[in-house]
Every structure is written in structure tokens, then in C-alpha cells.
């Protein structure tokens, strides 16, 4: 959050009120804002919170009065303003603490990789100020860049010595691990020990701790998977049975089917979306996130993603063509046109649209993963060659003679570009651009910055190899563990489909035959509700189809962390659903 015209106006209006804060309180609060990286003073933030709460209160009171005239509820008139005002004020109060926790987690996440990078440079005798200056210019390690910028500014601009700047950074850093790391640097400097030895040791320690932390994230994913199976597989089965059976016996089947449709198209997709964002919020997903280019123009975007865009456009054209063919056949009387035909077309068209682009992205993702798996071998090979005294050009040329699977064409391109006198910086950036991988972008930025700062060249490549290998280990562990739960989700879907078939064969079919008759039992009569069999079938068809799409996508996403991986599952499950409902029911 930065200062704005609105916040400055708020400060001007409430200047007399905020001036009553004592100096000690202001110092504590401003330090809190530095930790949260909120770029405004506490007085300005407090004034903005007061202004927002005041304006919101006026709006809420007016809205509540109008609402009261409509429903005549005194409870709503009193409670709604208090609840919303409390929510707004509470949000402003909690916002700095939320950002502190978020920044702390982000620093802890990328710290092992940042230390691994700078340890390779410290061997060349680079000073602490130069190390943090390098980190300040590297944008691939999250919030660590902001911490490094603050340290660099205090040393370069404010003229502080290294130890004073590091001690100040310890006071305002939101990360416990980063504080311990800086304290270790201070101790190393004061004791006169070798900084590169300390960095090498702490790098190994933090890498091991990071691997342990990622295993804990996998445990969290396991819990999410178990809850997912219960929430979107087991519960919907129970819901279908309860609503349909209750609808047959005396209740309104129209209401039951309407509830199932609402659950199918609104609630069930919302639940799947919630689990998707829950999985995506884990730190495993944050490590592999690609930082997209800012302010990319439309032409640049089209050029970079032209192949998937063309595939998507062709899919849309194919879907429109199918729809027009169906309408024409209906007009000439070849097929009957009704609401259920449009229902079928919507499901088929949705598969036509997502299948080509989904499989294309999956194949590209698979290729990129195969290259990433072999990348540590290539980087280690280049590092070993550099250690023998070869140049980068000769080291990459030597690596061209090796075999690295899907990575071979990329290595050949790099060798050819170097032979055309293209700089190593541009060669590496082109490689990262073609890879479209967060880890590739990180190591390329790290290598280029390390070479620019004059770090130990072979150590830089080996440090990059170590970082990629660590990420590969984490992803391989995730795939081996979560593949089991992906299989469970797929099996549960087929169980769900089988239960629907059994319900139709053993319960719904007899009820549909007897729905116009009285069933006498124990001297009484049970009147069955009249049911439209087509509506019942298509309601359950919709329910199952949405289930197939959601279960398929999440099954793939949990295993590989990519939505495209789930498209292959959801297409197969969707086709099976269509075939089953069109041939067996």
C-alpha cells in the first residue's frame, strides 16, 4: 500500500486527531509498517482508516434504512451497520499484520535459494555490501529483494557501515530465518572468519530445512485431498439420494431437481474452485510461479502465445460449426430440437473447446518438465568444465556432445548462438524464455548477475544446478505422493457414476412406472409425485458431467500442479459420462 491523494486528504482532515499520538506509539507503529512494507506513515494510514470507516458508515446507514423500508426488520436495521463497520475497521487493523506474515513466509520460502546463489559469489571475495547490492537487483527471490534494497540504501546512500545496517535490518525484518542469517553474517565479520565458509554451511542447512518444510506442505496437500474426496464425492452421492427419494415421496420433485441443478452449476463448481485456490496457495505452488511481464502489449501477448491462441480460436470455430449443423438439421426435420438437445450441445461443445488447448498445454508442460529434470546435469557439466579452465563458450560446446534428452535441442541452440557472437547474457535469457519455467528464470537471472558481479563462475553454475535439483526433488515427491490421491479421486468418480446407474435401475425406474398409481401399505396410501423422466435424467446428467470436469481437473492439478494436466482426465471422464447417459439410461 502506497501513499495516495485520498490518503493525503484523509491526513489533512484528521491531522488534529492523529497529532495526539505520543512519540513512542508512533515509532512502534511506523516500525510495524516498515515490516509490512506499507509505504506511508502510521498517521496517514490511521487517517485513511478513519475516513474509509466514516464514509462506509454513512453509506451503510442509508442502505440499511432503505432495506428496512422493504422488509421491516428492526434487527437488520441495527445489526447490518454495526457488522459492516466492524468488518471495515477490522480489515484496516489486521492488514499490516497480514502483510507482515505474508512477507515473512515469502522470505523464508526463497531464502535457501538466495543464500545458495550468493554463496557462489562470496568465494571470489565479494564484500557483504556487494552481495546485498546484487540481491537488490535480482527480482526472482520475492521479498528478499526489498530487504536487500533497504540494506543497500542504508550502506550506499545513508553511509552506514555494514554491521550497523545489518543490525537495523534484523530489527525490522518480518522473517525469523532472515534475522538469524544476518546475525550469522555479523558474527562472521566481527570474528574475522571467512564469509564464504559461513555462507556455504548455512546454505546447506537451509536447503535441508527447506526440503523438510516442503514435505510438511505435502502433508497439508494430503489432508486437502482427503477433505476433497469427502466434500465433492461422498457428500454429493448422499445429496442425490436424499433429494430424489424425498422428491418421489410426497414432496415436490420439481423443487428437488431445481436444488440439484443449483448445486450442479453453482455450488459444486464453487467448491472445486475453492479447493483449487487452496492448493494453489501452498508454498509448493509459490516456488514454481512464473513472474509475468508487466504492461505487455496486445501484439506482444499474441506473438508470445500465438500457437495456443490459434488452437483456441480453431476450437471455438469448430464448436460454433457443430452448433450450426445441429440447428440446420433441426430446421430440416432430421433431428428434433428441444431444450434437451441444447443441453447435450453445451456439454459436447465444452469438451470441444477445452480438449485441443488442454492437450497442447499438457504436452508442452510435459516437455518442459523433462527438460527441467535434465537441467541439473547440464549445469553441473558446464560448471565442471569451467573449473578446468575452459571458457563458457567451450564449456557449452563440450556439453553439446552429451545426451540430455529433450534438453539437447536447447543446448544446441545455445551453442549456435554463442558461435554467432551473441552474448552469454542474451543466450541465457533466450533459453529461459523458451523454457517458460519459474526455476529457469531464477537460475538465469542468478547466473547473469553472478557473472556481472565477478563471482566464481563454476561455483555459480553448480549453485544453480543445486537449486534446480532441489526443486526437482520437491516436485518428484509431490507427484509420487499425490498420484495416489489423484487415483482415489478418479476411482471415486466411477463409484459415483455406478451409484447413479444403480439408482436408475433399482429405484428410479420402478418409481417412474408407478408414479401415477397409489401404493397401499399398512392401511394407508402413499402418493408419488409426478416426475418428468427426461428432466430427472438430464438433472443427474448435469450433476455427473460437472463432477467429471471438476474431479478430472483437480486430479491432474494435485499431481502435477498444472491445470492442463487435469484436462486429459476431465475429457476422458466427460466422454464416459456422455456415453453412459446416452447408451445405458
Give the helices and strands, then pairings:
Elements: H1 5-13, H2 15-18, H3 23-36, H4 42-71, H5 74-122, H6 128-136, H7 144-156, H8 162-172, H9 176-191, H10 195-248, H11 253-280, H12 283-287, H13 298-304, H14 306-331, H15 339-387, H16 392-399, H17 408-419, H18 424-435, H19 438-453, H20 457-514, E1 518-521, E2 524-527, H21 533-560, H22 563-583
Antiparallel strand pairs: 1-2
Helix pairs in contact: 1-4, 3-5, 4-5, 5-6, 5-10, 5-19, 5-20, 6-7, 7-8, 8-9, 9-10, 10-11, 10-20, 10-21, 11-21, 14-15, 15-16, 15-20, 15-22, 16-17, 17-18, 18-19, 19-20, 20-21, 21-22
In spatial order, strands of the major sheet run 1-2
The separation of the N and C termini measures 57 Å
Computed structural class: mainly alpha
- Overall 3D form: globular
DSSP helix count? 22
**Mean pLDDT rating:** 84
Radius of gyration: 31 Å
Helix proportion range: over 70%
Q: What's the β-strand tally?
A: 2
Task: Please write the string of helix (H) and strand (E) elements.
Answer: HHHHHHHHHHHHHHHHHHHHEEHH
Keywords, please?
585 residues; mainly alpha; 1% strand
Structure description:
β1 and β2 form a beta hairpin. The radius of gyration is 31 Å and the shape is globular. By secondary structure, it is mostly helical. α7 packs antiparallel against α8 (162-172), α8 (162-172) runs antiparallel to α9 and α10 runs parallel beside α20 (457-514). The chain is 82% helix and 1% strand. It starts with a helix and ends with a helix. Strands 1-2 form a two-stranded antiparallel ribbon.
Amino acid at each position: 500500500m502506497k501513499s495516495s491523494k485520498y490518503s493525503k486528504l484523509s491526513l489533512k482532515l484528521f491531522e488534529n486527531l492523529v497529532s495526539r499520538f505520543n512519540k513512542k506509539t508512533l515509532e512502534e507503529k511506523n516500525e510495524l509498517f516498515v515490516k509490512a512494507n506499507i509505504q506511508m506513515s502510521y498517521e496517514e494510514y490511521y487517517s485513511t482508516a478513519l475516513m474509509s470507516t466514516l464514509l462506509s458508515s454513512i453509506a451503510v446507514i442509508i442502505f440499511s434504512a432503505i432495506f428496512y423500508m422493504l422488509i421491516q426488520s428492526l434487527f437488520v436495521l441495527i445489526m447490518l451497520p454495526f457488522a459492516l463497520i466492524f468488518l471495515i475497521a477490522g480489515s484496516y487493523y489486521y492488514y499490516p499484520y497480514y502483510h507482515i506474515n505474508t512477507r515473512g513466509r515469502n522470505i523464508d520460502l526463497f531464502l535457501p535459494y538466495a543464500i545458495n546463489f550468493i554463496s557462489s559469489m562470496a568465494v571470489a571475495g565479494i564484500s557483504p555490501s556487494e552481495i546485498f547490492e546484487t540481491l537488490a537487483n535480482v527480482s526472482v527471490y520475492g521479498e528478499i529483494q526489498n530487504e536487500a534494497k533497504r540494506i543497500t540504501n542504508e550502506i550506499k546512500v545513508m553511509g552506514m557501515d555494514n554491521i550497523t545496517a545489518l543490525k537495523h535490518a534484523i530489527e525490522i525484518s518480518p522473517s525469523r530465518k532472515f534475522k538469524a542469517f544476518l546475525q550469522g553474517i555479523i558474527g562472521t565479520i566481527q570474528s574475522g572468519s571467512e564469509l564464504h565458509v559461513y555462507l556455504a554451511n548455512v546454505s546447506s542447512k537451509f536447503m535441508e530445512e527447506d526440503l523438510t518444510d516442503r514435505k510438511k506442505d505435502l502433508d497439508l496437500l494430503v489432508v486437502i485431498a482427503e477433505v476433497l474426496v469427502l466434500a465433492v464425492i461422498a457428500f454429493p452421492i448422499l445429496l442425490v439420494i436424499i433429494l430424489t427419494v424425498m422428491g418421489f415421496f410426497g414432496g415436490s420433485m420439481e423443487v428437488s431437481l431445481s436444488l440439484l441443478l443449483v448445486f450442479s452449476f453453482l455450488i459444486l463448481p464453487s467448491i472445486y474452485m475453492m479447493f483449487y485456490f487452496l492448493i494453489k496457495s501452498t508454498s509448493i505452488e509459490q516456488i514454481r510461479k512464473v513472474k509475468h511481464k508487466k504492461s505487455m502489449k496486445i501484439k506482444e501477448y499474441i506473438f508470445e502465445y500465438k500457437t495456443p491462441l490459434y488452437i483456441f480460436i480453431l476450437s471455438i470455430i469448430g464448436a460454433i460449426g457443430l452448433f450450426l449443423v445441429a440447428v440446420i438439421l433441426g430446421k430440416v426435420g432430421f433431428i428434433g430440437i428441444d431444450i434437451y438437445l441444447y443441453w447435450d450441445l453445451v456439454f459436447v461443445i465444452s469438451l470441444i473447446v477445452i480438449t485441443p488447448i488442454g492437450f497442447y498445454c499438457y504436452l508442452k508442460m510435459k516437455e518442459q518438465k523433462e527438460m527441467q529434470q535434465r537441467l541439473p546435469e547440464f549445469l553441473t557439466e558446464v560448471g565442471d568444465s569451467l573449473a578446468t579452465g575452459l571458457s563458457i563458450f567451450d564449456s557449452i560446446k563440450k556439453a553439446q556432445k552429451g545426451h540430455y534428452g529433450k534438453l539437447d535441442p536447447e543446448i544446441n541452440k545455445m551453442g549456435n548462438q554463442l558461435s554467432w557472437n551473441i552474448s552469454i547474457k542474451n543466450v541465457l535469457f533466450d533459453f529461459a524464455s523458451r523454457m517458460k519455467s519459474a526455476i529457469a528464470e531464477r537460475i538465469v537471472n542468478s547466473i547473469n548477475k553472478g557473472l556481472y558481479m565477478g563471482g566464481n563462475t563454476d561455483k555459480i553454475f553448480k549453485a544453480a544446478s543445486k537449486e534446480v535439483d532441489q526443486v526437482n526433488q520437491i516436485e518428484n515427491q509431490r507427484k509420487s505422493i499425490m498420484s495416489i490421491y489423484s487415483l482415489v479421486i478418479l476411482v471415486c468418480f466411477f463409484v459415483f457414476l455406478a451409484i447413479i446407474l444403480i439408482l436408475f435401475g433399482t429405484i428410479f425406474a420402478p418409481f417412474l412406472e408407478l408414479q401415477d398409481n397409489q401404493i397401499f401399505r399398512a392401511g394407508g396410501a402413499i402418493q408419488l409425485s409426478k416426475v418428468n423422466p427426461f428432466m430427472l435424467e438430464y438433472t443427474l446428467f448435469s450433476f455427473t458431467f460437472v463432477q467429471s470436469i471438476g474431479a478430472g481437473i483437480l486430479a491432474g492439478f494435485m499431481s502435477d500442479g498444472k491445470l492442463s494436466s487435469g484436462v486429459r482426465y476431465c475429457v476422458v471422464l466427460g466422454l464416459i459420462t456422455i456415453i453412459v447417459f446416452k447408451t445405458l439410461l
